Amino acid sequence: MRKVRLTGIYKAVATAGTQLRVSAVDLKVPYLVITTESTNTGGIYIGGPEVGVTANDMFAELDSGQGIVIDPEKLGIKGYINLKDVYIDSEVSGDGAYFGFLKVEDDHP
Question: Are residues 78 and 4 in contact, defined by beta-carbon separation less than 8 angstroms?
Answer without folding.
Answer: no
